[in-house]
Amino acid sequence: MKKLLMGNEAIALGAVRAGVNIVTGYPGTPSSEILETVAKNNDGSIYVEWSVNEKTALEVAAGGAYAGARVMVTMKQVGLNVASDPLMSLNYVGVKGGMVVIAADDPGPISSQTEQDTRHFGLYAKLAVFDPSTPEEAYQMIGDAFDFSEKYGVPVLFRPTTRVCHSCAGVELLPDMPRKAPEGFKKDSRWVIFPRLTYTNHIKIENALKEMSAELSAYPPNKLDGTGKRGITAGGVSWQYVLEALSALGNPPVKLLKVSAYPFPKKLGQDFLDGLDEALVVEELDPVIEKELHALGSKVVIHGKLDGTMPVAGENSADGVKKAIAGFLGMTLPDTHTPEPPPLPARPPVLCAGCPHRESFLAVKEASSGRSSVYSGDIGCYTLGNTLDMVDTCLCMGAGITVAQGLQRVEPGVLHFAFIGDSTFFHTGIPGVINAVANQTDIIIVVLDNSTTAMTGNQPHPGLGRTMMGGSSKKVDIYKLMEAIGVDFITRVNPFETARAKDAVREAMEHKGVRVVLFEAPCIKIRGGASC
Amino acid sequence: MLNCMIAGVGGQGTVLASKLLAEAALSKGLDVRTAETIGMAQRGGSVVSHVRMGDAVHSPLIPLKSADILIALEPAEAVRMFPYLSEGGVVLVCSTSVKPMTSAGYSSEPMLDFLKVNVKKLTVIDGKELTKKCGSVKVLNVAMLGAAVAGGLFPFDMDDMEAALKEKLPEKYWDINISALNVGKVMFYA
């Protein structure tokens, strides 16, 4: 009997059946449900942790993998940027227990700062990348990924995209894979990275990549089919759009190559190009498959992003792919006409009714009115303060506090505020505060503590005293941390106490140096009782 | 292949509605794919779910002009998703408008007028009546599903929907939802 599962749920259950021992991560759309689903299906034998940030998550998991445990790390694609330092080195050190790093890409983007392609990261980091097309394929592949990681003794990347993560399908659940207990950490110089070891292992890595490419040419999800002078290749959800288009166009004869695991299966690619006049590459984000085909050096004319056939940015659609394939195959599509609708009401995302951030923004806006001020923002629900004209900059996690410092160095006469949420503060905010104190840069840091990681679905963080293993834990205190760092002024207030909130900001404005206003009031979503 | 789109405003329960349809379809042995808008939905944005069922479903997203059924919990959202409706497609729309957070409001009249002109198979369900009969605005999504299923639009019936409700919801919510399902059925035939 098939079970209706979201892609993320399928990945989680696939990891559980593969005997995963440790799952760490940091929330990030579209990946967040993976760790949450593992936690919901934990019989107590899996250690599950929302870590402080993606770098921490990866390093904790690496420790587990050194000791022979099967580990999984979850994050969104920009989170991989944060985890990239340990991951790049880890390939040279290697792992004992299988390690799967899930970096969920977000073509569009629908809710991300970049349209970066984790397959390209795999190329740069010299790591294998598994790229599932559907929830049911993801369920199967995650077990393969663990086996692959253990066979080659290195981490592997697994990159679903939004339309796989958040789409549901019927998945046939399979019995648990055979598992063995982690054998423990065995002391060995292999675990200590030194230049000499890096050089030796670099050679091993390059050789392994060739082996992997050969092995993946025989891996069923990488599939060559059909015959003809024209060929279409795709991977990820784009493969599904290709199938949809071909079905709608009456299944014209065409050679097909599905690419779902990298290093690019060069042998399959060569077999695909053999006998072709022209090829069309359908993929999202970067022209990874396209460039690999070009690199094989054949006379086949290759159409894709590089020659303008496919869009360079944004997500693919069934319609866009159908148009491209029809054009490629010389078929004409009927003209479609849609009547012009009346003007539609815009519904931009806004802060929820009852959100404390609205009060915090109001307090700062009113207290600083009449003064020349710049409001540096950060990533979280409070990014939506843009509709209140209270977000002048936003770059990436933890950047509000530091960008404000750069701005201040150019225009010291202007008031510089930096807004940061509680979870973002623990993630990457702390070094920014230390930097400001150590360099005595005049900024006002406004911490928006709503006792949760809200935007991604109310996950816990170190300030809450609660973990994903149930039970309680120590609360890390933001006020005490700021005092310990040595900020010049700090005050805490409930933003719903309007007059006191405004006074708190005014008081901070009267001081010099690094000032902190800590606004504390719970997110409206958790006021009815928190869930973990 | 049957393509059904569920459109509404964040908070109206489009995700649950699509999961219920998918569960019912899966229980009949059909191949099912769904795609939902998540996240921004919480914050009053437009939300849409794609539900596809048949022998072999490839794309999780419904192509333009391919939705056989459009269940709209809100009139403007029905119009917004109109480009997806197929030539002979059916629209079930709830008449009550939801005011956007950032504007002074809008009138649902031009929306319903547009639908009346351009949709051959249109059923407008009186939102106020529906809410009154259900006793809560929170079960509007399930009531609209009841109307659609009772109308014979899907390859499954009210019993299958009830089973899907019981599969997906905690027991304490069964009664109010099952009665909403039946209210929808009554409203469809009214």
Short structural summary:
The complex is a heterodimer of chains A (532) and B (190). With 532 residues, chain A is α/β, with parallel strands linked by helices.
Description:
The complex is a heterodimer of chains A (532) and B (190). Chain A is of the alpha/beta class and 532 residues long. Chain A is 38% helix and 17% strand. Chain A contains 17 helices and 19 strands. In chain A, helix 1 crosses helix 2 (32-40), helix 1 runs parallel beside helix 6 (135-152) and helix 13 (356-367) packs across helix 17 (498-510). The longest helix of chain A is centred in the middle third of the chain and has 22 residues, at 195-216. Chain A is globular and about 75 Å long. With 190 residues, chain B is α/β, with parallel strands linked by helices. Chain B contains seven helices and six strands, in the order βαβββαβαβαααα. Chain B has helices at residues 14-27, 75-80, 109-118, 127-134, 140-150, 158-168, 174-189; strands spanning 2-9, 31-36, 46-54, 67-72, 85-94, 121-125. Chain B has a six-stranded mixed sheet, sandwiched between helices. The longest helix of chain B is centred in the C-terminal third of the chain and has 16 residues, at 174-189. Chain B is globular and about 45 Å long. At the A-B interface, strand 8, helix 9 and helix 12 of A face helix 1, strand 2, helix 2 and helix 3 of B. Strand 8 (167-172) of chain A pairs antiparallel with strand 2 (31-36) of chain B, so a sheet runs across the interface.
Q: What attributes characterize this protein structure?
A:
heterodimer, A: 532 residues, alpha/beta, 19 strands, B: 190 residues, 6-stranded mixed sheet, 6 strands
Helix-strand layout with pairing:
The complex is a heterodimer of chains A (532) and B (190).
Chain A: E1 2-6, H1 7-17, E2 22-25, H2 32-40, E3 47-50, H3 54-66, E4 71-76, H4 77-93, E5 99-104, H5 118-125, E6 129-130, H6 135-152, E7 156-158, H7 162-165, E8 167-172, H8 195-216, E9 223-225, E10 230-234, H9 237-248, E11 255-258, E12 261-262, H10 266-273, E13 278-282, H11 288-295, E14 301-303, H12 318-328, H13 356-367, E15 373-376, H14 399-410, E16 415-421, H15 422-439, E17 443-449, H16 478-485, E18 489-493, H17 498-510, E19 514-520
Parallel strand pairs in A: 2-3, 2-4, 4-5, 5-7, 6-7, 10-11, 10-13, 13-14, 15-16, 16-17, 17-19, 18-19
Antiparallel strand pairs in A: 1-8, 6-12, 9-11
Helix pairs in contact in A: 1-2, 1-6, 3-4, 9-12, 13-17, 14-15
Chain B: E1 2-9, H1 14-27, E2 31-36, E3 46-54, E4 67-72, H2 75-80, E5 85-94, H3 109-118, E6 121-125, H4 127-134, H5 140-150, H6 158-168, H7 174-189
Parallel strand pairs in B: 1-4, 4-5, 5-6
Antiparallel strand pairs in B: 1-3, 2-3
